Amino acid sequence: MKIKSSLIVLAASFTAHVAIAQTAAPAEPVSTVSFNAGAVTDYRFRGLTQTAFDGAIQLGVDYAHKSGAYVGAWTSNVSWVKDFNLATKGDMELDLYGGYKSELGAGLSYDVGAIRYLYPENNSGEIGTPGAGAYSNANTTEVYGAISYGVATFKYSQSVGDFLGNINSNGSRYFDLTLNFDLGKGYTISPHVGRQTVPNQTTATAAPVVGAAADYSDVSLTLSKDLGNGLVLSGTSVATNVNQDFYVDSKGKILGKSTVLIGLKYTF
Fold first, then answer.
1. On the chain, which terminus has fewer CB atoms closer than 10 Å, C or N?
2. 150 vs 10, 138, 145, 147, CA distance in Å?
């Protein structure tokens, strides 16, 4: 009887351990790598068109470590370097970024990092190009910090050196407040408001704006639908209050003109 009882106890113990092992959560991976590919009917950056109201194809890759550190790269076609900065080269944007994000507790989290906006081979402002001397090289570096609580994220970005080819624009700043509301059934609505400041920019008009000609605000409202399997469809309404004498390209297009754009993104 004692032997039989011992066997029953051993069997029960073994069964319990197997059940625990089967229900235990899988270990968190040390790191993850994800890729994304997308298309938009108009590529907007802080409310301004980067493609003269034409479409763009965009690709990206992200690496994240469980410590909170991350790096990534993202690319898109652009036209503004030629249309606005009067360069003869510069049809692509390549962003390289890295940073660190973590939880602070009580629903708070933060994200700090740096990003380098590269426009390979761009000759913005170089001698021999149209309008040489009116701009500097378009390549730009920014540092940023963001804090999130609940549905809200506030982000602050500041340039290190000239901002997107604007001469003497070191210290350009962007303030970004975005809310994300989960509507259920895969739908998310995201209102956004931003403020861009670019110091020392003046319009050469009959009534010039001195020093703050490049400052503006932008607002947008995005409705997105998670279609499953990493595919997200979105629609965005964008508006700005740009100075139209400053943000007009060589073809007479106002870069901050209001629009509605459609995007499709696949993450895998």
1. N
2. 48, 36, 17, 10
CA distance 141 to 152: 25
Q: What gap in Å lies between CA 254 and CA 49, rounded to an integer?
A: 9
Average pLDDT, integer, range 209-230: 97
Distance CA 58, CA 73 (A): 11
Tokens representing residue 59 in the block: 């690709």
Q: What are the tens digits of pLDDT across the range 57-113?
A: 999 999 999 999 999 999 999 999 999 999 999 999 999 999 999 999 999 999 999
Residues ≥6 apart with Cβ < 8 Å to 222: 188, 189, 190, 192, 234, 235, 236, 237
Coil, strand or helix at 62: strand
pTM of the model: 0.89
Structure-token match 């470590």, residue found? 65
The four Cα atoms 249, 255, 260, 265 give a dihedral, to 10 degrees, of 90
Report the residue count for the chain.
Answer: 268
Closest CA to 61 of 38, 90, 80, 86: 38
**For the residues 132-152, what does the mean pLDDT come to?**
95
Is the pLDDT at 16 greater than 60, yes or no? no
Please say if the pLDDT value at position 25 is more than 80: no
Position 142 scores a pLDDT of: 99
Neighbours of 60 (CB within 10 A): 17
* Site of tokens 């670019």: 198
Cα 99 from chain centre: 13
Task: Fill in the amino acid letter for 76.
Answer: S
Contact between residue 235 and residue 249 where contact means Cβ atoms under 8 Å apart? no
DSSP three-state, residue 224? strand
Place of tokens 């009882």: 5
Q: Do the Cβ atoms of 95 and 78 come closer than 8 Å?
A: no
